[in-house]
């Protein structure tokens, strides 16, 4: 009976236990890359929670803060108050025109001018109309100089007239501010002062 030949005699090396177990061990611990497997190692997409936490890592970037709400739009502009010229006629004359006219004439060197506002007949020579209209009557030098501004329409934007006299009733009724499209307080004051100055009644006249 022939003797069995072992691996050493035949020049072969017997496989070790590790070599015999390596394929199965490798397969268990290194699965195929063809199948995705979750990993606990941090990646670029899933950073280490401790590294991204500012409470633990002082070098971690602070979380982005929400942008402040857009500032509220400023409130709409307040509407302009109505112009003084829009006041009712009588209120405008008494509250606005007479005080402004008194001041303007005084600044021209006539501090004693007397101004009144009344509804009466036209004080004109040869003018027999019984119709009354609102008038501003101004006088000084004990009534030796007097002027009248007429408002037959009771409206500063309507027809207006002017007359003046020195010690007697006026004989002429002049148109006053007939070419202006819009009448304002300043215009009523300045044009009347201009007319009185043309009469040489103001200043050193």
TrEMBL record:
Residues 1-85 are annotated as: Disordered. InterPro entries: DUF2996 (IPR021374). Residues 51-74 have a biased composition (Low complexity). It comes from Anabaena sphaerica FACHB-251. Residues 76-85 have a biased composition (Basic and acidic residues). Transmembrane segments: none annotated. This is DUF2996 domain-containing protein.
């Amino acid at each position: 009976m022939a003797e069995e030949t072992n691996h050493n005699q035949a020049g072969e090396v017997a496989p070790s236990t590790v070599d015999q177990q390596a394929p199965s061990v490798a397969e268990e611990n290194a699965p195929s890359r063809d199948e995705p497997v979750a990993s606990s190692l941090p990646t670029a997409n899933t950073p280490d929670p401790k590294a991204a936490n500012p409470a633990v890592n002082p070098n971690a970037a602070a979380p982005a803060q929400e942008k402040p709400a857009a500032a509220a739009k400023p409130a709409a502009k307040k509407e302009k108050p109505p112009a003084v010229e829009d006041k009712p006629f009588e209120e405008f004359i008494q509250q606005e025109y007479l005080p402004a006219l008194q001041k303007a004439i005084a600044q021209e060197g006539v501090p004693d001018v007397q101004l009144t506002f009344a509804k009466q007949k036209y004080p004109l020579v040869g003018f027999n109309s019984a119709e009354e209209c609102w008038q501003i009557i101004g006088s000084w030098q004990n009534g030796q100089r007097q002027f009248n501004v007429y408002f037959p329409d009771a409206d500063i934007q309507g027809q207006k007239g002017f007359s003046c006299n020195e010690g007697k009733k006026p004989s002429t009724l002049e148109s006053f501010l007939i070419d202006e499209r819009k009448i304002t307080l300043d215009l009523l004051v300045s044009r009347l002062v201009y007319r009185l100055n043309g009469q040489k009644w103001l200043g050193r006249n």
